[in-house]
Amino acid sequence: MSGDEPDGDGAAVVAAVEAVAERIERERDHLTELDSAIGDADHGGNMARGWAAAAEAARDLDDPDPQTVGKTVGKTLMSKVGGASGPLFGGSLVFASAELDDGIDAESAVAFAETYLQKVEDRGDARLGDQTMVDALTPAVHTFKKSIETDELPPLEALAKAVDAADRGVAFTVPIRARKGRASYLGWRSVGHQDPGATSTLYILEELLSVAADRLDAEVPDVDATSPTIPDDAEGDEEAEPAEATASDPEDD
Questions:
Q1: What pTM was estimated for this model as a whole?
Q2: DSSP string, 64-92
Q3: Are the C-beta atoms of 140 and 219 separated by less than 8 Å?
Q4: Treating both helix axes as pointing N-terminal to C-terminal, what angle do 155-172 and 196-215 enclose, rounded to 10 degrees?
Q5: Which helix (H) or strand (E) holds 252?
Q6: Is residue 141 part of a domain?
Q7: What is the DSSP letter of 182?
Q8: What is the Cα–Cα distance from 100 to 150, expressed in whole angstroms?
Q9: pLDDT the model gives residue 204
């Protein structure tokens, strides 16, 4: 993940898109099963079709750079993924990819993540606790940003923490009531079901981490979303006890 070799960054993004497409295809039936309980049972098929087309479009690019790959993938998802997922996953990616104009480094990766989250929230009019992909994405983005900017961790370790935060966010969708999307029509009957959009978001992040580790010729760090530091709002308060920040409860983000 370095801006020194934009061509290498572009190839890494293409590899990530291909890995995501393969993972979503493998998980197609599971995503369909999740969606059949609270939605239209089409999330698995729509996402698999869209990411397969996106991978093909990315492979067809000549000398790709990260921004171009991102926008190409986003536009393809918008056109190939049905329902709300197309604009949410694809449209948000088109906007966020502008942050990768100078390649991928820690700073641009954080900017990309924040922009992506903002666009997903705006397009879906969803917030934390609505039982949507935002419940996985928000803790992931916040954890990644803090790991980079506050804890000054290497990007790969920061991404690993973000994946763990997303995993916790997916689990968080199970005991809460859906307030957005078709699942919201079920009211309290949506409680007890894992959100398929949050789940596919986790799969995407897991593949990004795997590809990043492979490109860096490194092992995926064995970490969790806890952080060694928290912002000290009571600086100078001698009675304040040290605390450990954690992303285990997205409602606290």
A1: 0.85
A2: --HHHHHHHHHHHHHHHS-TTHIIIIIIH
A3: no
A4: 160
A5: none
A6: yes
A7: G
A8: 22
A9: 98
Q: How far is CA 177 from CA 33, 43, 183, 194, 251, in A?
A: 18, 19, 9, 10, 13
Q: Is residue 251 part of a domain?
A: no
Asked if residue 168 lies in contact with residue 139, where contact means CB atoms within 8 angstroms, the answer is yes
- Euclidean distance between the first and the last CA atom of the chain, given in angstroms as a whole number: 27
CA–CA distance, 61 with 42 (Å, rounded to integer): 29
3-state secondary structure of 5: coil
Residues 6 or more apart in contact with residue 242 via CB below 8 angstroms: none
Q: Output the domain CATH number for residue 173.
A: 1.25.40.340
Helix, strand, coil percentages, rounded to 5, for the chain: 65, 0, 35
> Rounded distance, CA 242 to CA 229, Å?
9
**Each residue's pLDDT tens digit, 196-211:** 999 999 999 999 999 9
Q: Which of 202, 243, 252, 246 is nearest to 224 (CA)?
A: 246
Task: Tell me which residue of 80, 78, 34 sits closest to 53, measured CA to CA.
Answer: 80
Domain limits for position 153: 6-225
User: Which residues are within 8 A (CB) of 197 and not within 5 positions of it... i.e. 6 or more apart?
Assistant: 43, 85, 88, 132, 133, 181
Per the CB < 8 A criterion, the answer to whether 137 and 123 are in contact is no
Residue 105 inside a domain? The answer is: yes
Sequence-distant (6+) residues with CB within 8 A of 241 are none
Per the structure, the count of domains in the chain is 1
Task: Give tens-digit pLDDT for 42-76.
Answer: 899 999 999 999 999 999 999 899 999 999 999 99
* Amino acid identity for residue 140 in this structure: A
DSSP 8-state code for residue 245:
B
